[in-house]
Here is the input.
Amino acid sequence: MIYPLLAMVFLTLLVTFRLLFIGSYLVATKKVHIKQFRNMDGEFPKYALSARDHFRNMFEIPILFYLLCILLIIKNEHDPIDIYLAWGFVLFRLIHSLIRIPNKNVLYRYSAFIVSLFFLIGGWISFIMKI
Here is the structure.
């Protein structure tokens, strides 16, 4: 269970560094003033707002994934199905991110999100059935 958890942490860190890079670039090129970041005042390029939303998304539903993984590790109650479900969640969150970064087709992004959600729900059902 630790490997899917670490993979999700790594993906979250990549999204975080992307946001930091975009913010630093905008300040360095004087496209925005650093004070604008306090309350996100003023104009920001759409790609910067998309990166910020993507970052926020990494701390919404994935929190339930982290909690599930930690509970399974602590209770030492995971089996191969739990591991497949965890990797399924991570895979579809990665696909979601790969679609989200260039901000392409919303239907594909939504579909990847829904599939990842089903993997997460399956993981929670599996966990609940074990306790």
